[in-house]
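Structure first, sequence second, as always.
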């Protein structure tokens, strides 16, 4: 042994050299003798691994030399832990590499470097996983518990090249272990190492032979035995469950979450562990439109899961009922908007509908029109209250239809009186039309007649057959718009007055009419529109 050889060497030197009894001069602490002068240190002449004696091996070594010399044999140093065993720091491992490489667990494990699965053949249940995607360098690491585990990001699957991806056939993102360096040895026996599209690249990843991760057995639970959370998701929502560890076998079971299904009614509750969406049919009625409990207002229905009025050309009376071109939606039906109740647009009621004395209509241009019936006049120009004034007949409006006043003598003191109204407006008068109506002035004249017998009814005197007349108006304006005309078989005379005034004419000449002839009076409006008014007149005359 080295310690024995060292003792013999020290003893031999003490017998053959030195300046003092039993102490070689070249090993003395000071150099040349017991006082330390000129001698060489033990460390200077011994091999490095023998310079520091182990405890108890060098009884004659000085305290200083024993404290600083390393005499321990490398063969006695405890070797580090092999790859695959748990560790806390790099110094615990024979490889000097202690890393957290088992799924997302914080527990560290000793690993060894590798470039292929052959480099890991000496270790039990380890495979060569690349340190980075596409790298030729890897670590010998334990079998992964994360095969087909549910995930949201790569770090959920491990710290090396594990990938969280929805591979072809998967119905949700799942963990897939990189098998570029180890091939099938990286995967469980019921998995394959396949080329999987990952964005614009292809990667070698472990995928289950069945193709659907959630329905395949998962990774190995020899290192981590707690159940794994998993989830199934689709358009109907998501459901959570667990993958318990199956024993014997040491593999995680398939995901226990149920497949989400749409809730068909607002009364349906979410199953345990699930958050599910409502089916379109559940939120497509008037009481649950687009969301449970969202009710539509009166006159609306749920169209495309949105409360929609049913009075438009696109949704007329029912969702999706479209009116043809040129029609509007009125009262839940498609019609051509050319009626007084719907003129040009649904609900556009023409003024005067239903009013007495007039008729509202919608013309071919879908514009409201209003006409007066016969002798009814819209003097105030407001169709909403109809043709509010009525011309009393007789008198008539032509000489043929003149209202007779009887017979009158030639006594100037005998006065005859008649009265009436001249009404005017800007309306068309139909149903029936008015004889003698002049649309320029918006009125028709009044005709009266009387027979002048040419005799005195008071005195037995001879008559000279002359006349005189006065007209008085009220209710009109100050414009001279009203005319009284007398027509006999021998003469014509007239006077013009305002709508609120008086005027007269007379003659003293004899023979202004023949005895027993008919004399006509005409009262008329002469001013053109837009002047329209209701004027009352009184006429007094003598023959």
């Amino acid at each position: 042994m080295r310690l024995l050889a060292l003792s013999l060497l020290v003893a031999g030197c003490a017998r053959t050299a030195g300046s003092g009894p039993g102490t070689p001069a070249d090993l003395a602490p000071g150099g040349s003798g017991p006082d330390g002068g000129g001698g060489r240190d033990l460390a200077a002449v011994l091999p490095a691994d023998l310079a520091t004696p182990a405890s108890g091996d060098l009884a004659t070594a000085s305290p200083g030399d024993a404290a600083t010399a390393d005499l321990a044999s490398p063969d006695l140093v405890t070797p580090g832990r092999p790859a695959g065993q748990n560790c806390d720091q790099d110094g615990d491992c024979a490889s000097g590499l202690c890393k957290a490489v088992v799924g997302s667990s914080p527990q560290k494990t000793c690993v060894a470097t590798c470039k292929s699965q052959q480099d890991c053949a000496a270790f039990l249940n380890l495979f060569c996983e690349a340190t980075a995607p596409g790298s030729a360098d890897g670590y010998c690491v334990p079998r992964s518990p994360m095969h087909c585990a549910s995930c949201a990001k790569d770090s959920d699957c491990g710290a090396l090249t594990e990938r969280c991806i929805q591979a072809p056939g998967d119905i949700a993102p799942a963990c897939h272990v990189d098998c570029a360096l180890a091939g099938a040895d990286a995967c469980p026996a019921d998995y394959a190492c396949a080329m999987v599209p990952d964005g614009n690249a292809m990667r070698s990843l472990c995928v289950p032979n069945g193709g659907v991760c959630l329905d395949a057995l998962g990774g190995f639970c020899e290192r981590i035995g707690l159940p794994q959370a998993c989830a199934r998701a689709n358009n109907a929502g998501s459901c959570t469950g667990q993958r318990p560890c199956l024993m014997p076998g040491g593999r995680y079971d398939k995901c226990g979450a149920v497949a989400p299904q749409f809730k068909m009614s607002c009364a349906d509750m979410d199953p345990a562990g699930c958050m599910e969406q409502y089916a379109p049919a559940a939120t497509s009625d008037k009481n649950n439109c687009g969301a449970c409990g969202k009710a539509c207002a009166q006159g609306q229905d749920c169209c495309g899961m949105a409360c929609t009025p049913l009075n438009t050309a696109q949704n007329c009376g029912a969702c999706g009922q479209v009116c043809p071109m040129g029609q509007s939606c009125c009262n839940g039906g498609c019609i051509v908007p050319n009626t007084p109740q719907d003129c040009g647009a649904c609900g556009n009621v023409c003024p005067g509908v239903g009013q007495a004395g007039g008729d509202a209509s919608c013309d071919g241009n879908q514009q409201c029109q209003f006409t007066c019936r016969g002798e009814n006049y819209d003097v105030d120009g407001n169709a909403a209250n109809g043709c509010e004034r009525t011309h009393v007949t007789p008198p008539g409006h032509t000489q043929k239809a003149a209202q007779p006043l009887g017979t009158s003598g030639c006594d100037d003191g005998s006065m005859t009186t008649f009265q009436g109204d001249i009404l005017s407006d800007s309306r068309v008068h139909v149903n029936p039309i008015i004889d003698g109506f002049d649309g320029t002035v918006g009125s028709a004249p009044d005709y009266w007649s009387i027979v002048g017998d040419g005799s005195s009814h008071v005195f037995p005197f001879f008559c000279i057959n002359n006349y005189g007349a006065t007209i008085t108006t009220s209710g009109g304006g100050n414009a001279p718009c009203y005319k009284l005309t007398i027509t006999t078989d021998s003469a014509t005379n007239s006077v013009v007055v305002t709508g609120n005034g008086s005027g007269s004419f007379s003659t003293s000449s004899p023979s202004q009419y023949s005895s027993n002839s008919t004399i006509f009076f005409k009262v008329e409006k002469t001013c053109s529109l837009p002047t329209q008014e209701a004027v009352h007149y009184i006429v007094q005359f003598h023959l």
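Margin note: DSSP finds three helices and 37 strands in the chain.
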